[in-house]
Design goal:
Potential calcium-dependent cell-adhesion protein. May be involved in the establishment and maintenance of specific neuronal connections in the brain. This protein has about 900 residues and is mainly β. The chain contains 12 helices and 54 strands. It has a 5-stranded mixed sheet with strand order 47-50-51-44-54, with no helix packed on it. A 4-stranded mixed sheet has the order 1-7-6-3. A 4-stranded mixed sheet has the order 8-14-13-10, with no helix packed on it. It is elongated and about 200 Å long.
Length: about 900
């Protein structure tokens, strides 16, 4: 028997130990902390890293974070210290109202292993609320015949704090007729009652003023007051009576606003005002007073706001019925709210990956999902799923948690992103569901080079463009994404005419727009060949090239240039010869011009801009040939002046002009007599040259003077053999054509033409006169020259008072003409100025001296015979 008792005791001990071990193991699964309410943000709650067996630095590495449901998080983790701290001020009364203990539950998620650890934090109440009454003043009537000992229920105070900080006591101000008795209610709160201790006498005191004070047990003590006014009335001996001591009502939470829920009823056997009953709520919670409405005359209770099963499941209230004399009675009303499936499931994305590389393996975790339904029973039971045609699946974890993972390898080139719809459905009738969307981007690897839109490009830019002008834009496309598709454009370096390509054009690396760095000249180079490279920003970068042909468009920026007849450089005038016997269409000359532009900008047209004899000449529109338009008449002037314009076809057109002088004569001597009219006036800046010429003439004159003296000495020797030269009007005696005297030492050869030097007082340069051929009058024989008085002619010149020069200077004035001829040859640089076509028979003559006049018969004449060369030499400068 003793052995059996011992075994029984051992069994009990083993059971006790086993129970303790199970309790400890169960308790070890939950982490419990406590923190006072109203603490500052960041206040320490507990060392979560220590309780999880982790180091503080592991919290961030392993993705440890708080997962809460349905409200803003009240706590947060300090990753440095590994502590759980408050995320802000916590109001226990707002959070838990009167519920004790006030516990906040949440989970700690260790993301790398997808483990959840439940945590409970108890919010400790502090004395931060003062007891309050719903009314500041209470006024009621009491019959003077009220029996002493009558109890009058007073409103009780409310303190949002709990425990010792809640309302603890009531006090009533001193009054000989009333005292205070506090009753402990069955449901917890104290109910103050005022007890009539002695009879009332209305005639002695009609109104009694009392103050009811409610105090809590905090430190320091907080208190609130209620002023009570008691009006003593005449006797009323029957208080109202409710038909039921307690009313019950079940109401679905989705009833419309204003629905009559129930009706309370109380009767009073008194008559008159003493029998008139009014209804009111007595000591109800402020939230109940906001939701329900009580009709003070009918006792009908209706809802002013929607009912919510998830907020309050049962509403308890006290209804008071009072007659006209102030007697009252109370009844309790209980309204139970029935749950309706009015809350759809709530889907919370706890953790999500927004982008995943396309080469990640199946089973990669994309998101952690939490599902919750505030309804109860089947209305709160939920299921979660995604469409079946996606390469993903949902794996269920604990406590309505799911994780979304990849089911197969993703392909970005096939689909670059997914919009995953997660649907949660409850089991209510009808069932409610919620959808949430997860956007997942499949990231790319750099496996595609940029591709230009065209194999090659051609761009055009007009010449003389401004610097910085936009030329062209190239575009390339990369099938990759993000930085792998970010393209930078550049020019492949090259040289153009010895200069780097970067000195001519540049390209915007972002937009691919090419810009001109200088003004292009079509005449310098009409086109450029470039290569543009497009390179992405991947690692490693990929690139491709494209050719760009840049063509410079010609603009009309060059006027026509006249090559023939060339503009003179020595002030002389070009002369073209046209015979009087020329028929219409006779080619006089041809204007030759070129234009450095191209295309229609270089198409030239010729026109006769001005003519001294309109209608006599015509210019070929496209050839520039100057032809006679009609037969030449005797009345036509020997000298014709034409202005020919050469114009291109550009926009706007540019032009140039040239002045032609056409001499009309069948033979050269016919026009030489009128050469003086073709010579330009002397330039005022010839003084320096004239000085040099005077010096040269003086030197030559001295030599020639010595020669003359020697010659005269020889002639005087043979004085007796020769005849005296007779002075006869300046005429020259005839002599055989085969004997010439070369005054300037140059052998004369032309027997057909001769010229004489006419010297006048105002002549600065020589003037050539070509008379009709007269061998007898033009040439003098050696014999006649020997017999004539050679000095008579110079003497007659000296006698002329108008001549400012000496006789010797006048005799050798033709030498300056020869010097002018040499100077004009040196200044001629253009080949066309040095040669004129035989067919045009062009002549060029020296400048004419101002104030020229022909020699009179009385003036002596000095013969100067010069070699004029062949008649068709075509270019004579005097």
């Amino acid at each position: 028997m003793k052995i059996q008792k011992k075994l029984t005791g051992c069994s009990r001990l083993m059971l006790l130990c086993l129970s303790l071990e199970l309790l400890l193991e169960a308790g070890a699964g939950n982490i419990h902390y406590s923190v006072p309410e109203e603490t500052d943000k960041g206040s320490f709650v507990g060392n979560i890293a220590k309780d999880l067996g982790l180091q503080p630095q592991e919290l961030a590495d392993r993705g440890v974070r708080i997962v809460s449901r349905g409200r803003m998080p009240l706590f947060t983790l300090n990753p440095r210290s590994g502590s759980l701290i408050t995320a802000g001020r916590i109001d226990r009364e707002e959070l838990c109202a009167q519920r004790m203990p006030c516990l906040v539950s949440f989970n700690i998620l260790v993301e790398d292993k997808m483990k959840l650890f439940p945590v409970e934090v108890e919010i400790i109440d502090i004395n931060d609320n003062t007891p309050q009454f719903q009314l500041e003043e209470l006024e009621f009537k009491m019959n003077e015949i009220t029996t002493p000992g009558t109890r009058i229920s007073l409103p009780f105070g409310q303190d949002l704090d709990v425990g010792v900080n809640s309302l603890q006591s009531y006090q009533l101000s001193s009054n000989p007729h009333f005292s205070l008795d506090v009753q402990q209610g069955a449901d917890g709160p104290q109910h103050p009652e005022m007890v009539l201790r002695s009879p009332l006498d209305r005639e002695e005191e009609a109104v009694h003023h009392l103050i009811l004070t409610a105090s809590d047990g905090g430190d320091p003590v907080r208190s609130g007051t209620l002023r009570i006014y008691i009006q003593v009335v005449d006797a009323n001996d029957n208080p109202p009576t409710f038909t039921q001591a307690q009313y019950h009502m079940n109401v679905p939470e989705n009833v419309p606003l204003g629905t009559r829920l129930l009706m309370v009823n109380a009767t009073d056997p008194d008559e008159g005002s003493n029998g008139e009953v009014t209804y009111s709520f007595h000591n109800v919670d402020h939230r109940v007073a906001q939701i329900f409405h009580l009709d003070s005359y009918t006792g009908e209770i209706s809802n002013k706001e929607p009912l919510d099963f998830e907020e309050y499941k049962i509403y308890s209230m006290e209804v008071q019925a009072q007659d006209g004399s102030g007697l009252m009675t109370r009844a309790k009303v209980l309204i139970k709210v029935l749950d309706v499936n009015d809350n759809a499931p709530e889907v919370t994305i706890t953790s999500v990956t927004t982008a995943v590389p396309e080469n990640f393996p199946p089973g990669t975790i994309i998101a952690l999902i939490s599902v919750h339904d505030q309804d109860s029973g089947d209305n709160g039971y939920t299921t979660c799923f995604i469409p079946g045609n996606l390469p993903f699946k949902l794996e269920k974890l604990v406590d309505n948690y799911y994780r979304l993972v990849t089911e197969r390898t993703l392909d970005r080139e096939l689909i670059s992103g997914y919009n995953i719809t997660v649907t949660a459905t409850d089991q209510g009738t009808p069932a409610l569901s919620t959808e949430t969307h997860i956007s997942l981007l499949v990231t790319d690897i750099n496996d595609n080079s940029p591709v230009f839109h065209q194999d090659s490009y051609s761009a055009y830019i007009p010449e003389n463009n401004p610097r910085g002008a936009s030329i062209f834009s190239v575009r390339a496309h990369d099938s990759d994404s993000n930085e792998n598709a970010q393209i930078a454009y550049s020019l492949i370096e090259d040289t153009i005419q010895g200069a780097p390509l970067s000195a001519y054009v540049s390209i915007n690396s972002d937009t691919g727009v090419l810009y001109a760095l200088r003004s292009f000249d079509y005449e310098q180079f009409p086109d450029l060949q470039l290569k543009v490279m497009a390179q992405d920003s991947g690692d490693p970068p990929l690139s491709s090239n494209v050719s760009l042909n840049l063509f410079v468009l010609d603009q009309n920026d060059n006027p026509p240039e006249i090559l023939y007849p060339a503009l003179p450089t020595d002030g002389s005038t070009g002369v073209e010869l046209a015979p009087r016997s020329a028929e219409p269409g006779y080619l006089v000359t041809k204007v030759v011009a070129v234009d450095r532009d191209s295309g229609q900008n270089a198409w030239l047209s010729y026109r006769l801009l001005k003519a001294s004899e309109p209608g006599l000449f015509a210019v070929g529109l496209h050839t520039g040939e100057v032809r006679t338009a009609r037969a030449l008449l005797d009345r036509d002037a020997l000298k014709q002046s034409l202005v020919v314009a050469v114009q291109d076809h550009g926009q706007p057109p540019l032009s140039a002009t040239v002045t032609l002088t056409v001499a009309v004569a069948d033979r050269i001597p016919d026009i030489l007599a009128d050469l003086g009219s073709l010579e330009p006036s002397a330039k005022p800046n010839d003084s320096d040259l004239t000085l040099y010429l005077v010096v040269a003439v003086a030197a030559v004159s001295c030599v020639f003077l010595a020669f003359v003296i020697v010659l005269l000495a020889l002639r005087l020797r043979r004085w007796h053999k020769s005849r005296l030269l007779q002075a006869s009007g300046g005429g020259l005696a005839s002599m055989p054509g085969s004997h010439f005297v070369g005054v300037d030492g140059v052998r004369a050869f032309l027997q057909t033409y001769s010229h004489e030097v006419s010297l006048t007082a105002d002549s600065r340069k020589s003037h050539l006169i070509f008379p009709q051929p007269n061998y007898a009058d033009t040439l003098i024989s050696q014999e006649s020259c020997e017999k004539k008085d050679f000095l008579s002619a110079p003497q007659s010149l000296l006698e002329d008072k108008k001549e400012p020069f000496s006789q010797v200077q006048k005799l050798f004035r033709p030498l300056s003409v020869a010097v002018d001829h040499l100077r004009s040859k040196k200044q001629q640089s253009h080949p066309i100025q040095q040669h004129v076509s035989h067919s045009t028979r062009g002549w060029r003559f020296g400048p004419k001296a101002s104030g020229h006049q022909r020699n009179s018969v009385e003036q002596p004449t000095i013969c100067l015979h010069r070699d004029l060369g062949p008649v068709n030499a075509g270019h004579l400068t005097a």
